[in-house]
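Hey, can you fold this one?
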Amino acid sequence: MGSIAQSYNFQPDWKKGDSKTIKIETRTLDFEDGEQTKDEFEENEAKIKVTKVTEATIIFSVKMKNQVLSKAKEMYENIDQEVKVKDYEDLTLIYEMDRNTLDRKLINWEEARDFITNGVGLMKELALEKDPDGESTFDAILGPLMGMFNSEEMVASMYDPYIGFLFVPFGKELNKDSPVVVTDEEDNPMQPGSTVSSTTTYTLTAVDTKKNTCNINTRMDLDMSMFLDMMKTMMVKLATAFADSNDNVEAMVEEKMKEMESMKMEVYNTQEISFDMSSTWVTKAVMTAGSEMVDPTKNASRKKTSITTYTVY
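Sure. Predicted structure:
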């Protein structure tokens, strides 16, 4: 008889006083029609400290760079030396995690919002002192970011990519023989304000019982089919609308439909996670976010890959 694979359902067992540093390294590659158009590297760091543990909750703080201020500094490097701006460089977020539901609440989201907006406001004042004509450029670049901070959910979502991997192992019945498949809704990266369905597969790939460690891989695919269908319908309508009386509309529509059949859109996200089963801390994660689009109407293909390595120590 075959052996039955052991199942694991990991729960956070963090201790008060636990302190971790996360080194975050991201490389982004863009390709158009097979030619590389972008190769960027970015480093970040986050410090996590568990400040309180009860039977019901875990409270922890996350300290890291004010990401919006960092974006602003890219525009005005000479302001980097301003003492007042340095007061807004590091942002501390305080989370409360429910140990049963694993839901995370950003306790100080309003304080974080004010810290971010005040820092950028000061940055803008200093920038305009040096470049009085730069207000429109400043607002065009940072305006959309500033609009993201009107709710706890929006503030938390901006920083979740830096810490979200820590919680992936928790609350799932994992074994090596049966991947866990979860369907959900995610933001549509091609159409802000709308959602698409997603399918995420969690796979326990290795268990080392001597070291009490394991590896967990995940893959999330976004279902872009409905969005693609909408795009195809819109293209056909545009072709029909611009047709004149001498055109064979049916033939044009048929030709456009054939052209659109080769339109392709793929969006995915994978994670390779190393997990310490004793401490219940992730020790390393490699996340790959990828998207690819083939647009026959422009005879173009675009591919973007972002690889982020998180090292926890």
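The chain has two domains: 1-11+171-313, 54-167. Let me know if you want another pass with a different chain boundary.
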